[in-house]
Amino acid sequence: KKQKQTNKKRVNDDPVIIFDYKKYPHSNIDELFLDDVHDKVRNRIRGGRVYIVSPSLRNDFITDYEELDDIRYYFLKIPYNIIKEIHQTDFKKFRQPKSKSVVNALDDSIGFSFNRTPSVNSSLRFDDSKIRISIIDFKSEEPRSSKSIEEKQMNDFELLSAIFIDAKYNGRDFVMTDVFFFDDLTVEDNQLFLEINRNEVGDKIMLVYTDIFGNDFTECYDLK
Fold first, then answer.
1. Are 133 and 207 contacting, i.e. CB atoms less than 8 angstroms apart?
2. Where do the DSSP E strands lie in the chain?
3. Full-model pTM
4. Mean pLDDT of the 141-159 span
5. Distance between CA atoms of 133 and 221, rounded to whole angstroms?
């Protein structure tokens, strides 16, 4: 069974599965693998998270997580081409922009860390003319020790950098059609809002929420 291709550990009391890609070179993280894992753990875990670590090219999912029943399986993807650079230079994590005016002001840096997927609670409503997306809650999972003094004083929404959108998501590849930086979003009743014309959106829409530390949360809405 595919579970035999993994090693199991725990991080922050959440289970972690290490995909043994060298031992099983012809297997990938796919729906069959995930269903097989879920069959084994769903009676042992009530809600919560399970992390799956693998090389990025051995993971068939474009989203950052998949939810089965009440368990979220988060994918920690390791780029092949970054390992050499990590060993050659000190790691420095750069900050993501919150406005278009500072997009080109970022320093060049080389480094890699696992995506600390933010927590996002959102909803989508639409009619014949508009699609309205509400961000009810946003919480960055970046450790406090990684934040500057100023960043430690920011509220949760202020740690949001931007929302990248594929308004005509084809179910396979993310192709950005829109971007809303934090400064572009509307604030009402302690929530953030954005609107898109309905005629510019296809059957599916994918959104990538990025915090200022470069961590992403990806979700997809089906509008059929």
1. yes
2. 6-11, 14-19, 49-55, 65-68, 71-78, 119-126, 130-139, 160-166, 178-181, 186-188, 191-197, 204-211, 216-222
3. 0.65
4. 91
5. 10
